[in-house]
Write a structure and sequence with these properties.
CATH superfamily: Alpha-ketoglutarate-dependent dioxygenase AlkB-like
CATH topology: Jelly Rolls
Structural class: mainly beta
Number of domains: 1
Number of helices: 3
Distance between the termini: 38 Å
Helix content: 10-25%
Largest sheet: 7 strands, antiparallel
CATH architecture: Sandwich
CATH class: Mainly Beta
Shape: globular
Bound molecules: 2-oxoglutaric acid
Order of helices and strands: EEHEEEEEHEEEEEEHEE
Length: 201
């Protein structure tokens, strides 16, 4: 384990390891996930109209870790062998016993993830989220919820680990914007801890 860079957001804190995985490890994991994950094109419904979300995704976790966001209900697929040691390492780095992971595939610069916080009820009151990036470098931004002029930008390289600590989801939104740059695919894994079932589950 190496020491992270600490980025104070006030309120909230990021812990950042720009080179958490060596290049060859990150490349191997990227290739395996790209090939082996059963990627889903999920849709969301806004004002009665359905839209494909601008990325592919997959949800893995312990039994019972159902996750709902933007009207989607994600049932966990069992942990693939390749992700189990990674989950354990990320958990010990972040000091949080993660029991699930959302895996996103951004196929090109047109794929994205809009402003949001990971604040669903099943994550509990002050969740810790750990985000591992693989593949193309993409720009990750945070924006304070009550003062939108306060922003923070990180260009996340392959193999980097970013832990959003307690207080971040309550006070900051984050996004992965589209880019017109000609970028290759990127995979991002956000490890989460589901602590209770969502309402109505
Ligand atoms: O792709 C990223 O870096 C961010 C992913 C994200 O915001 C999410 O899964 O909630």
């Amino acid at each position: 384990m190496s020491l992270p860079e600490i980025i104070e957001l006030t309120p909230g804190q990021l812990s950042y390891w720009p080179e958490w995985l060596a290049e060859h490890q990150a490349n191997r994991l990227f290739d395996l996930l790209l090939d082996k994950v059963k990627w889903r094109q999920d849709v969301i419904t806004i004002f009665g109209k359905t839209h494909s979300i601008p990325r592919l995704q997959a949800w893995f976790g312990d039994p019972g870790t159902q996750y709902q966001y933007s009207g989607m209900v994600l049932e966990p697929s069992p942990w693939p062998d390749i992700l189990k040691p990674l989950r354990d390492r990320v958990s010990s780095e972040a000091g949080e016993p993660f029991n699930s992971v959302l895996v996103n595939l951004y196929r090109t610069g047109s794929d994205s993830n809009g402003w949001h916080a990971d604040n669903e009820p099943e994550l509990g009151k002050s969740p810790v989220i750990a985000s591992l990036s693989l593949g193309a470098v993409r720009r990750f931004r945070l924006r304070n919820i009550s003062d939108k002029t306060r922003t923070m930008t990180l260009d996340l390289p392959s193999g980097s680990l970013l832990v959003m600590g307690k207080g971040v989801q309550e006070n900051w939104h984050h996004q992965l914007a589209k880019t017109s740059r000609d970028v290759g695919p990127r995979i991002n894994l956000t490890f989460r801890r589901i602590i209770k079932q969502p309402p109505g589950a």
